[in-house]
Amino acid sequence: MREWRAPLVWGGLLIAFCLAMGELEPFYRLIEPDSRRVIYDRADFLTLLWRHLTVVGIASFFAIMIGVTAAVLVTRPAGRDFLPLVAQLASMGQTFPPVAVLALAVPVLGFGGVPIVVALLLYGLLPIVRNTLAGLEGIDASVLESARGMGMGRMQILAQVELPLAFPVILAGIRTSVTVNIATAALGATVGASNLGDPIISGIVNANTAYVVQGALLIGLLALTVDSLFARLQP
């Protein structure tokens, strides 16, 4: 139970702040003494948390599926010629600013959750692809040769030898991708994808620092909760 203490503590604090944000009004009043409202109340914080998790979860799921699959395919003999191309495309996805992706996606996809999912998907691919390639290519050739000597086929070697051995490195890439996207997802509030970025954007627009602190606090706690969960899953 002690091993799960950190995720439970961070997760408990996250839920507590979502439920009791109004109780902290005196504290936020110190930050914004001249504002009529200091607690963001346009949406329930638990609802915003759920929407934030949904967007990050969907984007991360597709990033994992695409990233791991692409990395596996280009490490096979038939796809090795495409390895530089896949690595470059994944790098471009992260170097291209999410704000620019949103600006290009909104005219095509409209406002809402889809543009931010696309932006997070592109932004989260690089750590997953990079770590999957590193994990698979870092396996000792003698281990693969031993597996072949035991009569294992290519798919058996991939499923029973390569992926299990590369799993810690792959998981580290997924951990980085998801944690970074938790913060980046706040940009979705600018294109109508309501989430924990709403208080931050509203605070910036209305010059209300208390709103910004509330959104940033909850996103920070969510990132710590998820990161500590991944830490427990890391072999």
**Beta-strand percent range:** under 5%
> Which superfamily, in CATH terms, is the homologous superfamily?
MetI-like
Which CATH architecture is right? Orthogonal Bundle
Indicate the mean pLDDT: 88
**CA-CA gap between termini:** 17 Å
| Unreliable parts | none
Order of helices and strands: HHHHHHHHHH
Task: Quickly count the helices.
Answer: 10
Mass-distribution shape: elongated
Portion in helices: over 70%
> What name is given to the CATH topology?
MetI-like fold
- Count of individual domains: 1
CATH class: Mainly Alpha
Family: Belongs to the binding-protein-dependent transport system permease family.
Protein name: Osmoprotectant uptake system permease
Membrane topology: Multi-pass membrane protein
Organism: Halomonas urumqiensis
Features:
MetI-like fold; ABC_transp_perm/SBD; 235 residues; 10 helices; mainly alpha; single chain; transport
Could you explain how this protein is built, in words?
One of its GO terms (biological process) is glycine betaine transport. Residues 49-230 form the ABC transmembrane type-1 domain. Keywords: Membrane, Transmembrane, Transmembrane helix, Transport. InterPro entries: ABC_transp_perm/SBD, MetI-like, MetI-like_sf. This protein is mainly alpha-helical and 235 residues long. The protein has one domain (2-18, 44-233): MetI-like (MetI-like fold, Orthogonal Bundle), CATH 1.10.3720.10. The chain contains 10 helices and no strands. The longest helix is centred in the last third of the chain and has 31 residues, at 154-184. The mean pLDDT is 88.
